[in-house]
Amino acid sequence: MSRRGAWTVFIFDQVVIYVILAAGFVSAEVVYLANKGDVVVTWSEARGSYGGFCKKATMSIGITFSVFGFYVILSLISSYRLFSKYDAPSISSTAASSYPRNKQDQEMAAAFPA
């Protein structure tokens, strides 16, 4: 896989993780409102009327967060493969020889020798 392809896969992994996480939190909020209601906006709990729905929705939320956990693991594997395959950019010898340029850079280089 090319560098561009590896970065594309990594970015899509991150996007999918955030979409799954957002969907999980939104559905958790809906089920919370169905179970507890909201006094401020005068919503009563719907658990008594729609008990089967609340149980299924709670299971769905559990599955959503399980999938999120698995996708985090896959994303870690993807990022490991991406960052281990390609080295970090290096400083060219001409750029390194011109460092330090000014007095402040010279003082910093003296304080933290390589």
Task: Write up what this structure looks like.
It is a single chain. The chain is mostly helical and 114 residues long. The protein has helices at 3-36, 51-85, 93-98, 103-111. Helix 1 (3-36) runs antiparallel to helix 2 (51-85). The mean pLDDT is 75.
List keywords for this structure.
114 residues
Distance between the termini: 35 Å
Number of strands: 0
Summing up helix and strand content along with how strands pair, one would put the structural category as mainly alpha
Largest sheet: none
Helix segment count?
4
Radius of gyration in whole Å, from Cα?
26 Å
Q: What fraction of the residues are assigned to beta strands by DSSP?
A: under 5%
Oligomer: single chain
Instruction: Please estimate the helix content.
Output: over 70%
Tertiary shape: elongated
**SSE pattern, N- to C-terminal:** HHHH
* Low-pLDDT residue spans: none
Q: Write down the overall mean pLDDT.
A: 75
Membrane topology: Multi-pass membrane protein
Subunit structure: Homodimer and heterodimers.
Family: Belongs to the Casparian strip membrane proteins (CASP) family.
Protein name: CASP-like protein
Short description:
The protein has 114 residues and is mainly α.
